[in-house]
Structure formats: structure tokens, C-alpha cells
## 1
Amino acid sequence: MAKTFAGGLPWSKRRPPALQSETVSPPSITVTVSHDRDCLVAEGDTVRRGELLIAETEAEAAIRCGISGRVASIDRSDNRLSLTITAEASEEEALCLPPPAETLSALSPEAIGALLRERGIALPTPAAEGSAKLLILDAAGDDPMKEGRAHLSLTDPDAVLGGARILMKYFGTRRGVIPVPETLLEVAEALEGRLPRNEKMLHIQQIKDKYPAAEPHLLVSALCRLEIHPLRDPASLGYHTVSATLCAAVYRALVAGIPYTDAYVTLVNERDGEAPRLLTVPFGTRLTDVLQAVGLTLGEEETLLVGGAVLRSPAAKDTVIGPDREAVLIPKRQKKAAKAHANCIGCAACNAACPMNLLPSQLYAYRSSRLARRFSPENCIGCGCCEAVCPAGLPLTETILTMKGGTAP
């Protein structure tokens, strides 16, 4: 069965986000790491934004403070080290780190990795020399709820492109491509306008605007016409996918000396029908504090979802913001739920939407039979496209992932 991208959900009405980033100032942040990490502060210490809290290791990045305040508590239990910082007014500016002793062109990949870890960014270990084939810069995002990537590409293209070049050196490749959906041409124009005319390392390539086209192995398929099994990491084959947010963070950390302490979070309030908001949130901020900072509250029975427009998962209200939290959703109060007796109506909408060319209707029909293996449930990527278009509201994603042996998103 072909593994190249097909089907999916079109975002034909999508446009670049006309959003202004709002800064969230939480009352406190909480950082939790493994118990064996070295803590460099003590209870009662005053810290400022950007200050080192937990030292880096050979594989893990340092933890730097996202707010100015005081160390309220340090707890070592359950094999975890947890620090809570309470915000306090400070006349000191945020800490700015010195530039590298050597020019970026003179730095080795190992030196780049060490500097980034010290500034809060952990990168995967590069493969053997000469094995990296391509760096793919996801400048527009794989989901219309993850607007921070497109926003950065529009407002700070130099940081995005500069970070991409640093990462190309780190991974050891001289080829980079920037795929941009056809409905986000403004993003392509903003980046192209900052590329030199004789640029040979990076180029922009338009792709069909369907979710989840930027799933790493599908993106490699679309750009390189190379089929990669969904369970295999494209990076192991030399195809590295990085986001615009990571590229900008890398550039700012090494060139401007700004530690990596904040996340770009798109807040979508479907409950009240409000326009999306793009927030700059310090790592370690609780979701409830994010909502309170922008004047929103949740009822006892209401839940929060993290993820994208299709691939989303419930999150506890005390969940903290980290680098992987790009979108937070307050769903509508009256969400359509599948009835216990709901049946497939045979419309085949799910089959047309599946980006992996699977037949979700048949997988669901044979969910309790060994015949289901004929329809390759192991190739499901859990994107949720089938369930999003199902008029009967069937729990297709959860069912297929259970058959696959995974967990529902």
C-alpha cells in the first residue's frame, strides 16, 4: 500500500494570522525534571528572567527561569526535582548571555549543541558525518491552530532563516527546503524576500494545503517522492524536520543571547466564539494561569484540549506549558458525541479523508475480527481526519489506534 500523502482535510480558507503576540505574566511557574539533575538555586533565592536554575547535561538542556521572582520551593520526591518560582517585581533587565567566543562559521556541530544546551535548547544527536540529506523547515505549521510558526515567519524571517542555517550546520547538510502551503503565499513571500538572490542552500517549495501534510514522513514523501514507513523516524534516514519556532529560538539564543524560556501558544476559544490569540508564555506556566491572564475561566465540568484542530488530547488544568505546547483549545460546551448505538452509514467520507490511503470504514466494521489486519491498521498515524468528517460521530481514531496497539490522541 502506498504511504505517500493523499486525502486529508483541506484548509482552503486558511490565511496568515493577523495576530499580535500577547505576553502572559503568570503569578508563578513550576519546573519539574529528573531528581538527579543539579539544582543551582536554593529556597528563598531571588532570580531574574533568564537565570540558570538547573545545569545542562550531555543529553539534556539547561533550565532557565522564565520570570523574575523568588524560589518558593524545591521538592525532591518520586524521583523528580520540582522548583516553583513566584513572580516578584524586579528592576533588573532579563539576563542576556554573551555571544560565542568563536564565530558561528567556526563552531563545530558539537560546540553548537553544547552552547544551545547551556542556553535551554536540547537537539537530537546528529547522525554520522555525511548521513544528513536534507533539513526541512516547517515555516507555516501542519495545523491551522499552530499559528506561531507562520507568525514568526512573517514577523521575524531573519531569525527563522538564520536558525535554519545554524541547524543545517549542526546536522551536517547543505540542503534545506521550506515547504509552504498554497494558501499561505504571504509566508513564502516574507521568507523569500530575505533570501539572497544567489541562495543555494535554502529554497521554498509550495505544497498542497491539507492536514496533516507536515507529518514528518508524509512531508518527506511530498517533497522528495520517497516513501517512509509511518513508524520510522525520517531523521534516522537523514531527513530532519524543524519548526520555525525552534529555528528562531536557536538564532536568538546564539546571536542575540536570549535564553529559551518561552513558548508561542495559540489559544483558540471555541466556547465563546472568539478569534484566536497568540500568546508568549513562560515555560512552567499552568494552563489555568494562562487563561486567567487573558480574562478567561473554566467551569467545573469544562475541559481543555492541547494539540491542533484535529489531533488534540485532553489536558489537566494544572498542566504546565512546555516547548511542545503550541496550541490550547477551549472546546464548545455542546460537543457532538457518538451515540452508543451509532452505526456507519456507508458514506465513505472517512476513506476519502485518510492521508494514509487506509479504509477506516472497513477497519471499524471489522474491529472485532482478525480480518481487520487486511486493512493495515498499523499504518494509522492517529491524525483524526477520519473521525473529523464522520457524520455518524463514530470513534474511528480511538478504535483504529487500539487495533494498532497504540493509544488514542
## 2
Amino acid sequence: MKIYIKNHVFHYEIENVTRLFFPFEKLEVIKNIEKDIIDFDNLKVPYIFTGVEDSVILVKAVFDDFKKELTTDKSNSIKEDERLICSLLFKLLTEYTGIEMPWGMITGVRPVKYFRTLAFEKGKEYAKNYFKNSYFVTDDKIKLAETTEKHENDILNSSKENSFSLYISIPFCPSRCSYCSFVSQSIERTRHLIEPYLDCLCKEIEFTGQIVKKYNLFLETVYIGGGTPTTLNPNQLKKLVNTVNFSFDMTTCREFTVEAGRPDTITEEKLRTLKDNGVTRISINPQTLNDDVLKEIGRKHSAEETIKAFEIAKKVNFTTVNSDLIAGLPTDTFESFKNSLDTIIHYATENITIHTLSIKRSASLTEQGIKTNAQDAERTGKMLKYAEERLMQMNYIPYYLYRQSRMVGNYENVGWSKIGNEGLYNVFIMDETHTILACGAGGATKLKNPRTGTLERIFNYKFPYEYIDGFSEILKRKEKVDIFFKELEL
């Protein structure tokens, strides 16, 4: 599909709105075209034309027998012109496809943060009306955004000045899930890299800790993710966690999370090692408790192993346990999803994160040519509606929310929690509240200037072998953290 752009610079958002309706279509954006010298009547369809001529904004969509254009007057604001041109396109594509987008034409990752900004500037009623009338968000999603923002704001207000969080990457998994696009390696192929990787990682953590000690910074949360950190054995886990404990002042740390993730990597010895060495929160992420669906998505554990992992976590007496489910997985049904959620609630996990399936370009599902359709969106929407109603009934609150590209039905991911057990790191990273110092392969440090609110990013090498081979460069890049805080004169 071709998208023609004339006399405006809004090609990025035009492309994003189009992808809401055609997530798997190859789009070709043609900028700075001269409409008068192109014979649009004889162009190969489908195509979209968006242009600004004199004081008029015009959008035209042509798909086989569908041919329609809309116009509106140009405003005096570049930002408003962008919204107007996108809204015309959104209306045309909604009419052509018959698809109702729950989040309207919002394409950003953080709709709750946008809602908060609007509410802060002009009040919550304005924010709700703006979401509905200017971005066409449904009433249900506006209510979810408002409720989530309230609980999220309580966490943000509890954060200290000059605080930061620490993210540590363990990019190894027992196997690669078919929907996954994270930088993680199957240990069947990369087991030999774990020890040298861990040695380098601990050195980077120590180096980062030395920098932090020079400045008046407060460590609020630690998150060890991946990948699956519990692919490490108990001794390796102890070495990693203790390196964190020895490298940073942990007296200000409010939450220490390890994403245990895959139930087939969880043992009592591993969980006791984590608990005994200061970890307060873990994730056990089955994604589904249907064995057939697990097989379909490339998971090598069973529902029974997940139940056993929950029982071990309860026996070890972890403060907080999170569990992830994914709505919209291939071959999953509403009844199957309902059973998965009800079972997890039965085991009284304090956090439950409900994700919507997002099929990334680099995932094997995409390589297999799997695409979602209107029936998948309807099924997923039913799952999410049940989850929201059931979790609220059981006194869980939504405390953070984010969206991704290519989500089935263009829905959302929501973190639900029992009050007092919210995952702080999730909120801080979604809101970009403070600096995130990242260690390990694929890590992206985000340095936030508390005076300007701007972010400066430092990227580590993505893959374990690159990280090991180029470790001297990793430490060299980390020196930029020292320079950043020195210039702030903290």
C-alpha cells in the first residue's frame, strides 16, 4: 500500500494510524509529492493521499470499490493540524474496515501518561472529553485510563528526589517462545556463555555501583529480567544478587524483583536463595495454563509445573508474586483463558499482569506468516473484559498500563495488584520517572535530567557474545553516567 504525502511533515503519525488497521501490510510512504503531476485516477490501488493545500486539509483513501475523501479547514497550530489530518484518515479507515479501535487513534505506548498530562494541565473532565472527542477512545478505555492513572499517581508521588532504579539483564531462556522478540538466547545453544557472561555482568554492576556512590542518589527498585534469570543455577543467582547487595546502598531499596518467569526453571533451592539474599518480589509467568496452547507457543513447561511453582513460592513465603497471562494466544479459547485466570487467582498471587498478544516482526509467529483477524480481536476483547471484571471483583486494582505495536485488536497490557503490592519498577519505567541504570546485554540506560525532564540513553551490546567480546567498550560507555551526574552537580 502506498501513502502519498504533500505539503506536510506528519508522515510518521500517518503511517502509525494506517498500521492500526493494517498491521501486517507493507507500507510505502512517498513524501513531497506533487499531486498535479500524478495521475491518481489510474494509480494502482490501494493507496492513501494526505495533503495540505492553501487552508484546506485533504485525505483520500482508495481500496478497490471504496473511494472517498474528507476535508477540513487548516488550524493555526502544527500539533492540531497533525491531529486533524490523522483524524480524517482514522475516520476513513474505520468506515472502510468496519473496525472499532478501543484506543481510537492513540498510537503511543503510554496513554495513561498522556491522560495524566492533560488532566494536570486542564482537569480530568477535559482529559476524558479530549480522549473521547479528539482521539475517539471508547468509554471503557477512558474509564480504565482514569482508574489506572489514579493508582499509578499514588506510586509516582511516593518516589524520592534524586532516585533511580537498576535493571539487570539475563538474556537466556530454556527455549524461545514463538511470539517473543526480546534479545534472549536458548540455553540449548548458549549454555557455555553463561559463566563468562555472568563474570562480566558482575563487573559492570560493581563499576556502576562505584559511580553511583559518588553522588547523592537513592536506589528505589532493582529489577533482574531477561530472558529468564532463573536459568541460572542457585550459586550463580547468589553471586548475582550478592553483587548487587555489595555494590549499592540497599537501605533505600523499596523493591527487589527477579523475573523467575518460566515455571520449568523454578526450584525451591533457587527461590530460597533469592529470598534469603534480599529479593522481595518474583514473577512466575505461565502465559496460559492450557498445555496445548503452551506447546503451540513453544513453551516446554506444563500447567502442572506452574502450579508447583506457585506452591513453592508460597512455601518460601515471598512477599509478592506476579504472574503473567497473555490474551489472544494462538489456539487459545475464551474458556481456556478464563480457567487460566481463575486458577491463578485461586493461588492468590498478589500481582497479575494481563498482556495482549503482540506479534513482533522478528518473532517466529511472524516468520510463519501468522496474522490476526477480526475474530481474533473479538475473542481477545472478550478475554480482556472478563479479566477486568473478575480482577476488580477480587479487589485487584489496575496500577500501570502500556501498549505495543501489532497488538491483537489494538488493546493493551495492564498490571493488576492487591493494594500495597504494586510493582514499583513497572510504574517508574513506564512513566520515565527517574534514571534507569541498565547492566547486561541489551540494556538501555536512561539518564533523566531532573531539571529539564530530558532523557539521555546509553545502549549496551545486544547479544551475550557481543557483550562479552566488547566488554571494555561497555565500561567505557558507562563512564558517561559519571559525566552526566558530574555535570548536574548533584
## 3
Amino acid sequence: MRKRTKAVLFAVLCMAVLVTGCGGEEKISYIDEGMTAIEELRYEDALADFDQALVSGEDKRLIYRGQGLANLGLTKYDEAAAALEKCLTSGSSVPDEMDYDVNYYLATAYYKGGRLEDAKQVYDAILALRANAREAYFMRGIVQLKMGNYELAKPDFDMAVKLAPNDYDQLVEIFKVMNETGYQESGRAYLETAIKDAPKDMSNYDKGRIYFYLEDFEAARNYLEQARDAGNDKATYYLGKTWENLGEYNYAASVYASYLQEQGESALIYNQLALCNMQLEDYDAALSALQSGLALEDAALRQTLSFNQIVVYERQGNFKQAAQLMSRYMQDYPDDEAAAREYEFLRSR
């Protein structure tokens, strides 16, 4: 979905042109401003821009779509779904490319908001019109599995793999969701088949991460080392995790630190470095890494980094600071039941 988001955002930005008014002055396109804010992860600013776009009489269909994307970024799934529904009803009776795109986002909002049956129905509708919509099969399979319908999920996953047999990102995600829902062996079968039927041009990175999930860490290390040495930056995360699973936390930390020094900052890598330092009981270093990661304002990692920061303060014995941060965390992520239990413990201290 991330690739789809970037592509569509670019298309919308290109369509949002500035309108020239009297006297040659440029009139601001608030839709344009809002989409730029979304691209920069400034979701609250984006919503303010779209509100202004409504006042200015700009294209409501694009405004509702933008509101849906911004609310998705803020994890406000009910609000996202409502806006995306408005976007769909404001279009024509004949679906166009934008309608298909919005339906994918709407299904995501339903899924993230716990409305699994609604999400499934959206994917059903997409597949009724586009029989080879690989992404819809893949996502419907995930929804079916989350609903406890393994017998219905498996054919969807099989079709998604048939339509894109060398999409290793998809294979890894299928394994992950099957592993999370108690079907680890079925998930492993997809990865084992991918290795057995691997084309000659399968990259060392893809081989390495598949062996990582198959828990053959020696093979994973060998392929991922080769991938990193060949300049594949994406191999760093899996290589570091592989060394962690081999119990070599110092070496794993050095892998992450080298990446940050040579390739630039990454919230994901900062988090992994912090976890290694926590294993090594170097809590000052762990806290520094987490704070550096939080400073990057990566919305996808903010919750994880915030929670891990609380854990570090707790392990340092700084229960007062941990409790203060947990109070703020619970305001931002009220549905985290594990954190809620931890908060009760911290308040008792």
C-alpha cells in the first residue's frame, strides 16, 4: 500500500494546479497544500487545509479523499471511512481509477477500525469488477484470516501468489499474518516453495530474508552479508536481526550503527539499535537511540519508539518519568491493552 500511496499522491499533486485570479496573482490551492502536508506526515495541518478548501469551493471529491488519507495517518479510522465514503458518493455512477484507489483506502480504514466484514465486502466489490486484482485477493485473504476463515483465506493467498509469484514482499507478508494467526506451517510452505522454485536472478536480499523467516539464520546471514556488501541498504535491518537471533547483540548493534553513520538516519534502525542496547543493559545508549528515532517524526514508528522509551525509563528505575510518558502514551493510543496494564503498574510505583 505504501507504493500505491506515493504514486497516487504524486498524481493528485500534479492535477492540483494553481488558479490565476485578477491582477495576475496566484490563488492558493488548499487541496495542493493539504496533499503536500500528508506527504510530509503533517496530518493535522492537512485537515486544516482541506477545511479551507471546502470554504474556497474546491473539488469536493478530492477534498474528501484527502481528508480520508489524513485521518488514516492519524489512526482515526471511523473519520477516515466517513470521508472516503463521501468521496465515493460524490463521483459518477461509472467507477474510474480514482474510485478503485479510494476503495482500497476505504477497505483499509474498515480493516484497521475492526470492521472486517465491511472491509471484505469492499474487496468483494473490487474483484467482481476486476478479476485479476492481485492486491484485492491478497488483502481479502488477510481479512478472511483475521475473521477466522482460513479455508476462505487460503485460496485468496494462492491466487495472489499465482498472479505475482516473484513478489517476495507479498510472500513475506502472507507468512507473517499466517504466523500471527496460528497457521505457521502453512505460511512456511509459501516461503519453502519460493526457495525451491527460486529463479536464477533471485537476489541475495530476497533469499536472505526468506531464510530469516524460515529461521535458518546461518544461511540468512551469508546471503544478507553478500547483499549488504553489494550495496543493498535494505539488507541491514534483516542482517542486524539475524545477528540478534544468533545472540550476537554487540555485532548487531555495530551493523545498525554503521548504517546510521553511512546511510543516514532511520527510525526503524534507531529502534533496532535501542533494542540491542537494551539487551546489553546499556540503557543510556538505548534511550539516546530512541530519542533520535522519535525526533524523525516517523508516524509508522512513533508508537513503537514511544513505548520502548517508557520501557527503558522503567528499567533504569525512573518510574516517575516512565509514568508521565505512559500517561501521554495512553492518550495517544488508548486501545493498547498491554500498555494500559503496564500503566497501572507504574502508577502503583
